[in-house]
Specification:
Oligomer: single chain
Order of helices and strands: EHEHHEEEHHEHEHHEH
Largest sheet: 5 strands, parallel
Structural class: alpha/beta
Strand content: 15-25%
Radius of gyration: 17 Å
Bound molecules: 2'-deoxycytidine-5'-monophosphate
């Protein structure tokens, strides 16, 4: 049986950085489910579909095929056969993904893909509903969080490093709004699974979080 590790938590908690490092160390496949919601969101954006227009969203979902490939261990997302990985990580796509991930039709399609991937391989999968809905039987479940201030500062530093201008207060507001939407939607809201282990990374380095999860995994093997 495949060994599955679920990592859930709010935006900016460090899930993808940590999951990627763990996957490399453990030779597991890293599945970034947020990127799937983002690819779907990109399609809506490119086709000028409003996040409030459930009828057009439902129609569009039927036209969208999302698939995953790995190049040198890095996940690539294909949207109707086109590799869109490089277009996914910006605020517009992230906000659209958060707004449209509330629709059952969107979730159903992506959850099926995620479950299929986890059945056939040892995976570290990160997202919002992995421990609660996608992989309820995952052998290890982590709920990774950090304070809003810490997450905003990390995002600010990331943007500054790329030479992009950023406003710390605006980023913090954006994070709070995203948290609220992700935690309060009707279907599969972000919440800690009952059997998930909570890690607050506010005062921890990346290496410390990786080491903490590694030792949890060892206990469950
Ligand atoms: O992790 P991320 O920032 O790339 O995710 C973008 C949005 O996608 C997030 O705000 C909510 C949604 N999402 C979700 O609903 N369920 C997941 N498993 C992953 C992401």
């Amino acid at each position: 049986m495949a060994f599955n590790i679920a990592i859930d938590g709010p935006a900016g908690a460090g899930k993808s950085t940590i999951a990627k490092m763990l996957a490399k160390k453990m030779k597991y496949i890293y599945v970034d489910t947020g990127a799937m919601y983002r690819a779907m969101a990109l399609y809506f954006l490119k086709n000028n579909i409003s996040p409030d227009d459930e009828v057009r969203i439902s129609d569009a979902v039927k036209q969208v095929d999302i698939s995953i490939e790995y190049v040198d261990g890095a996940q690539q997302v294909l949207l109707n056969g086109e590799n869109v990985t490089g277009e996914l990580r910006n605020e517009a796509v992230g906000n659209m993904a958060s707004a449209t991930s509330v629709y059952p039709i969107v979730r159903k399609k992506l959850v099926a893909l995620q479950q299929k991937l986890a059945k056939t391989a040892d995976v570290i999968m990160d997202g919002r509903d992995i421990g609660t809905c996608v992989l309820p039987d995952a052998q290890v479940k982590i709920y990774l969080t950090a304070s809003v201030q810490t997450r905003a500062k990390r995002r600010y530093d990331e943007l500054s490093e790329k030479g992009e201008s950023a406003d710390l207060a605006m980023i913090a507001k954006d994070i709070e709004e995203r948290d609220y939407r992700d935690m309060n939607r009707e279907i599969s809201p972000l919440k800690q699974a009952e059997d998930a282990i909570l890690i607050d990374s506010s005062e921890m380095t990346i290496e410390e979080v990786v080491a903490a999860i590694e030792s949890i995994v060892k206990e469950h093997k």
